[in-house]
Each structure stands twice: as structure tokens, then as C-alpha cells.
Amino acid sequence: MNIATTIDAVHREAPLSASEAGPAPKRIVVAFGFWTFLLSDIVMFAALFAAYAVLVRATAGGPTGAQLFNQASVAVETACLLASSYTCGMMSLAVNQRHHGAAYLFAGITFALGATFLALEIREFAGMIAIGATPQRSAFLSAFFTLVGCHGLHVAAGLIWLAVMVAQVAIKGPRPNVKRRLLCFTLFWHALDIIWVALFTVVYLMGVRP
Amino acid sequence: MSDTQYDRAPGDRFAFSELKVEEAGSGVLVYTIGLVLAVILTATSFWVANTSLLWAPGIPLGLATLAIAQMGVHLVFFLHITTGPDNTNNVLALAFGVLIVALVVAGSLWIMSDLNANMMPPTEFMNSQMQH
Lengths: 210, 132
Hints:
The complex is a heterodimer.
Chain A: H1 3-13, H2 26-55, H3 65-68, H4 71-96, H5 100-130, H6 139-172, H7 176-205
Helix pairs in contact in A: 2-6, 2-7, 4-5, 4-7, 5-6, 6-7
Chain B: H1 24-50, H2 59-78, H3 88-118, H4 123-130
Helix pairs in contact in B: 1-2
């Protein structure tokens, strides 16, 4: 037995480590790159959170959070986003299992829950603006609308992305590149829910305490 | 190919990996455990914020703890970021992100509270200035 066949036998028994196996598959490279983007997005949100925390007392004699925020509405928004995160995970499992009917169903539920969240948030903003609590009123309200509005914009972008992904699965089928995009979408949607956890705690729950 | 130990992509534990089709049942279980834990933590957060049973000055700290715990639940059960050796790249990227977030948030609060304390003008002037 020469050395070459011995090495071959070793390789067949033990799995290759990542560094021996060469470049990682495209799916892993794409998902890692998107993960890096999500972390940079979270860093941007950290700056908005820091601005909000610094300015939360700067109400300029205007309305405070305790007067403006409606906890029942926030609880429903939180439930919607959490449930949509769950159905988004279910959708990824259904796509993986090639259960296309279930995948469309879960995508539809995810979209409906995300749209409900967005509608509630827009209604809350409209109600605040109607009583004069506009972003121009105080530094607190500027920071509030920037932080919460930025998250809402992300949710709106996610809804558009979800609709595009459903159309791509319907037209192109679950090809590898479509599945990579779906993986990125699920990461994006779960990350939005993580940001919302920080947001409802810092803005709404801590904000309504006297 | 199938026995090569590549790093895992984030969110890749069950979703979209051709090798694990038969494990979808445990995938549902993982997401469901995550959902139950997240619901419990969220409900506790809302209860803590509204109750008068707890020591009031400690409530912000308790809320922060609950929020960080829930973020951990989301990372592990929804994004499948684990401590396994095939997840090192993802965890290192996450650790760097957490470091930057902590520096930005804690540093901003620290500097701004120091500025407020050091540049304290006379009281009546401060009341008009700090409110803006």
C-alpha cells in the first residue's frame, strides 16, 4: 500500500474539514454575506436607539411617551410580528420539504400578519400626528419617529420582498438561486423581529413608566 | 460532498439544506419551542411593565434582561445560531456586531450624561435648554 492510497482511505473515513474542502458552497457564502449585512443594519439601529435614549426626556413641553403610547395596540403588533416570524420559519420548512401548497399558505399568513403590523403602526402614527405629536414637535418625537419609522420601513420592504419571492417561486420554481434568496428573506424577517423586541421594550414598555 | 464539514449558513440548520429533508418534524419542533419561549418572555415583559408588585427602580433592568433573553431565543431557535464548530464564523460576526452595538449605545448614554452633568448651567437656564 503506497502513501497515496492510504491518504485516500483516510479521506473516505473522516469527513473533510472546511479548510481542506476548498471554497464553501454558494448557499453558505451568500447566507454569511447577508448575515454580515444584517449585523451592520443592527448597528445602524443601535445608533438610532442611542439617539432615542439620549433624547427621550427632551419633550420640549410637548406630549411624553406615557401620554401617547397605547400598550394594547403595541401588544397586538408584537403578537403579529412574532407569529409572522414563526410562519416564516414554517414556510422555509415547507419549501425545503417541497410542499408547495403549504409554502404558499405560510407565505400568505406571513404577509397578512406583517401587513396587519404595518397597518396598526400607521394608524398609531396617524393618531399621534392628528393630536399634534408630529416629528417637528420635540427632539423626543423626532427620535421616536426616526427609530420606529425606520423599523416600519424595513417591514414594508420585507413585505415587498416576500411578494417578489412568492412570484419567483411560482414562476421560476424552487431553483437553487431562488432558494438562496428565500433563505436571505427568512434571515431578514427574523432579524426584524429581534429589532422589534428591543424596540417595544425600550420605547413602549420603558416609555410608559412614569 | 455530503460528508464535508462546511460551516453552516445562518438559519441553515433545517431550512433549505437538501441533506436534512427527513428532519422537518424536528424543525417544526425547534420553531415551536422558540415561539413558546418568546411568547412567555414577551408576556412577562408586558406584565412586569404594568404590575405594581415589583420594586419599581429595578423594573427597567428586569425589562432589559427579559429583552436580551428573548433576543437570544430568537437567535438560537429562529436564526439557528449555535455554538457548534460549524457555526464559528456566524458567532464571531455576531460577537463583533454585539461589541459595536454595546459601544455605540453605552458610549452615547455615558458621554451625554457626563455632558449634562459637566455643562450644567444655572437651573432656570437649564430648564429652558434641556427641554429642547
